[in-house]
Amino acid sequence: MASSEEPMKSFTKAMFAGGLEQDIVFPYPKMDPDEEENLSMILGSIREFFKDKVDSAEIDRTGEIPAEVLDGLNELGVMGMSIPEEFGGYGFSSTAYNRVFEEVAARDASLGVTVGGHQSIGLKALLLHGTEEQKKRFLPKLASGEWLAGFALTEPGAGSDAAGIQTKAIQDGPDGQYTLNGSKIWITNGGLANFFTVFAKTPVGEDGKENITAFIVTRDMPGFASGREEEKLGIHGSSTTELTFDNVKVPQDYVIGPLGKGFKVAMEVLNSGRLGLAAGCAGGVKRLAAMSAEYAQNRKQFNTAIADFEMIQHKISDMVVDAFVAESMVYLTTGLIDRGDVDYSIESAMCKVFASEAVWRAANEGMQIAGGLGYSKEYPYEQTLRDARINLIFEGTNEVLRAFIALAGMQEHGEYLKKVGKALQSPLSAMGLLTDFAIHRIKGRVATQRLEGISEVLRAELGKFEEYAKDLHLVTERVLGKYRKDIINQEFLLHRIADMAIDLFGMVSVISRVDSLIKEKGQEKVQREIAITKIFCEEAWRRVRRNSRQIDNNIDDLRKEVALGTYEAKGFAVDFVA
Hints:
By secondary structure, the protein is α+β, with helices and mostly antiparallel strands. The chain folds into 4 domains: 29-144, Acyl-CoA dehydrogenase/oxidase, N-terminal domain (Butyryl-Coa Dehydrogenase, subunit A, domain 1, Orthogonal Bundle), CATH 1.10.540; 149-261, Butyryl-CoA Dehydrogenase, subunit A, domain 2, CATH 2.40.110; 265-399, Butyryl-CoA Dehydrogenase, subunit A, domain 3; 410-565, Butyryl-CoA Dehydrogenase, subunit A, domain 3 (Up-down Bundle), CATH 1.20.140.10. The protein is built from 19 helices and 10 strands. The strands form 3 sheets. It has a 4-stranded mixed sheet. Helix 12 (345-370) runs antiparallel to helix 13 and helix 14 crosses helix 17 (491-521).
C-alpha cells in the first residue's frame, strides 16, 4: 500500500505525461485460486436460481421484484458479497464482486440496479470510511439483505454537479446532533432501503464555510420520507424515488468520514460504483451476442440463414469484440483496486463510458438482427433496449465523465508545465527542473517508449499502442500550452482527448490479457482471442489518429455556430425552398 502522503501511481495519468508504467498493467491480474473456486460455485448457484425463479419479463410488466426473488438473492449471499466476513459478508475482492454483479445484471437489469444501488454505492461509503462502531451496527443487516442501502446525492438543481447540492445539515442539538433539511431525486432503492448514505452541506470551521459531509440516515428517523415510484423507460422493477428530509435529527456519530470531506467520499464511492455498472454492461453485451447469434442461425431469408450474410456477421463480431474489450478493461481495473496501491479513478470512468456505450450499441444491433420480432414485447430485445439506455446516464453522464477523463488525465502534467513556466522566469535558480524538462521534451519528440517482453504475435498492435500513447502525450502538451486554464471550457477537444485515452486503455487491456493467455496456454489455444484483439486494435488506433488530427483541423466553429443559431431561433429554423 502506498502511504497516505504519497500520491498513488496511475497508468493513465502517466500515459498523459508521456510515460508507460508497464508493471501496472502487465501481467494481466489473476484472482486468488481459492477465491476463484468459491466464485465458480456461487456463479453456478446464481445461474440455477435465475433459471428457476426469475421471470425478467414479468418483473418488467409488473414493475416490481417479487419478495421471494430478493429473499433468494439474500440466501445466496449476494447482498453481502463485498462486506467483510466479520460483519456477515463474503469479503469478496473487487474482481469477484464485479464478476457476480455482472452475472446478476446481465440476466435482469432491474435486479442489477437494485443490487448495485445497495452494494456498489449505497453502503460503500460505510465500508470505505465508516467507524468500527458504525460497521458493527449496520453492516450485518446490510450483508444479510434484511436492510437494503441507497446512495442519496442527486438533487433537483444538481444532477452531475455534485458540488451544487442544497440539502443542509446544521449542528444544533445539545448532544451534537444535526438537523437535516432538503430533498434528493432519482434515488435507486429509494422506496425499499432502510439505510441511506446522504450528502449535505454543513458549516465547517470558524468561518462557517459550507462543505459537503456524508451522513447515515435510516428510514425510521422522524421527518424522513420517500416519494412515489418514478415511471421510467426501462429498469421497471427497480425502485426509484424522491427522498425528503424535514428537520430530520441525525446523531453526531452518524457522520461518515471527516466533517466537510463528503465530496471526496462521494467521488471515491462513484469511482468504485462505476466499475459495477461497467461489469453489468459487459455481461449485457455477452448476453446479447449469444441471443443474436442463436437467432441469426435459426432465421432464414432467401432460403439462407441470416447468419451467413456478411452484414449480420459484422454486427455479431462487433458485439463479441465489444464484450471482450469491456470485460478486459473492467477486470484489469478491478485488479488495480485489489492491488491497493494504484489510483484507478480515471480507469473506472473509462470502463463505464466504454461499456455503457457498448451495451447500447449491442441492444440496438440485437433488435436490428431480430427485425420486426425484435420490436415486439413478446421477445426480450425491446426490453433490453429500454433497460440499456440508463447506463449512459447512471453514475455520472458520459459527457461529464469524458470531461473528467481528459481533465484528470492532464492535471498532473499541467501542474508540471506550470512549474516549468515559473522556472523560466528565474532560470538560474531552477536549473535542475529546466534540465529535466529539456530532456523530457527531447525524449518526447524523438523516442517512443516501448513495452518489453510482449508476445511477438501482438507486436503490430503493441507498436500502434506505443505510437499513439506518445501522440496522446504530445496532444496534451499542445492543448495545455495553447489554452492553459481555459482548457476546461474546450469541450470539443476534451471529448476527443478522452476518446483517445479510452481507446488506448482498451488497447493495452486486451493486449495485456491476451499476452498473459498466450504465455499461460500457448498461442494455438487462444487464436480467437488474438483475432478479437487484432480487430479492436486496428479500429481503435485509427480512431485515435483521427481524433488527434482533429485537435487542430476540425469543424468545431461551424458546429458551435449551428447550435447557437438554433438556440436563438428556438428551433430548426432553416427555410425549405420548394
